[in-house]
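hey all, quick one before standup. I had two proteins in the batch that finished overnight and I want to keep them in one place so we stop losing track of which output belongs to which input. First protein below, input sequence then structure tokens straight from the run.
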Amino acid sequence: MKFEQSAARIDDIIRSLENDNISLEDSLSLYQEGVRLLSGCREELRQAELSVKVVDDE
């Protein structure tokens, strides 16, 4: 999933978790998905930062 798609999905997850009508099981599942997506976004940002650093060093 691309960074932008992951960020949009994380926003959707946050909105769902803020809903009072969601079950504990669904909340946990969404939370776990959000953590995985966030980890992927952080890694993608780290890679982008390294790429910028390489270009900047040249």
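OK second protein, same deal, sequence then tokens:
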Amino acid sequence: MPRRPVRRAAIAVVGLIVAANAVSAMHAWRFTHYVAEPVGTGTAAPEALSFAQRAAVLLTGVVVPRPTVGKRPEDLGLKARGVRKGGLAMWQIQGDRHGTVLLFPGYAACKSDLLDEAGAFHDLGWSTVLVDPPGVGDSDGSTTTLGWAEADAVATIAAEPHDGPLVLYGKSMGSAAILRAVGALGVTADALVLENPYDRLTTTVGHRFEALGLPAWPGADLLVLWGGLELGFNGFALNPVDYARDVHVPTLLLTGGADPRVHPDEVRAIDAALAGPHELTLFPGAGHVGLQAADAALWDSTIASFLAHWAPFAVSKAELPAGEGLTDGAAVGLGVLHGHTVACGYTLGDARGTLFSGVTGAGALVELHGTPLSLAPDGPRQWIGPTVAVHVHAEPVTACGVRSPGCAEQDVAGTLVVQEGGRVARVGVTGTAACELPRK
């Protein structure tokens, strides 16, 4: 072959590669940078575009208006307090019980889009914190990293003091951010409730190409590449299915049976990868977001049952039945455990649950999510004793069956020591402890 045609072919190939990368870089920028346009004026969903509109989008990229606060808590009869932490904005809504849910929205959404779910959690008694991640609502910025930096926001808010057991709830991108926060950043919680988390960023971006009638490869990979380069993160490492292998927190996954953005099989892959207790509920016929709106009865009952088992409300002394004598074998709620169990020099597993003390002094019942403290293999509830001591800042507060003089309800931040037959387990604990009530 003459040299000139070969050179022309090489130039054409290089030109095609440069053009493909230039277009991909433009698409990535438009996809991750919100614009100051009124909500509702952005590019419609790919499925709703005509052939000509799809061609125009391929040439110019999408227009994604910056999500702004619309509906407010008072519109649902909820009383909220606006709070800021650094550049993050949130609403705090107080519930009737001792337990807190942090809520994180999906892509191109803000805390207003979490109000229906927050109202449902509130009806169950939970306090809620609705968070604007970076770039949306009342938070600073106008960009999104599709779950990467959003995971840092999850870590920041989860590290704040919260009342009772802590639950992290996310929708789509918010769910992916939670999985990265827990699996990669070491965030701790008592339970996770995750709607439609994508398994890999390249997968969910690929589904958008497919919705335009295009193959997922190489467009999805190029878009993820350039989005990461432009915003300083590795999009190819944003894989919730990989993070799930290091998530030991009890996790409830919810997915729509007709979700075009995150297919049910992809959520099942995350479910199979989770290291801790996990459940998956399918909402037949439901799409990508709005599962509570799609089937409120299924959503409410599924979450209520899951949280009652894995993240029971903390019980304070004031909530125990007034004037009732405590009989042999009764139990008094002492608080919620958060920590890591160590016995005989090796790790047993996570200890997260409710601590109960038998009033007879015979022992203590620890309901936890992980390996039982008693080393018993046959379930999460075991009597362990005869001695349980709670240490707050290295000072013992109470022992099972022995009420310290003047003991009062107080926060626990120290070590729970359980001794059984010469074996000792130590659990780092935080939460609220109510000392044992005196018997009649």
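Flagging for whoever picks this up: Residues 155 and 186 are 8 Å apart (CA to CA). DSSP finds eleven helices and 16 strands in the chain.
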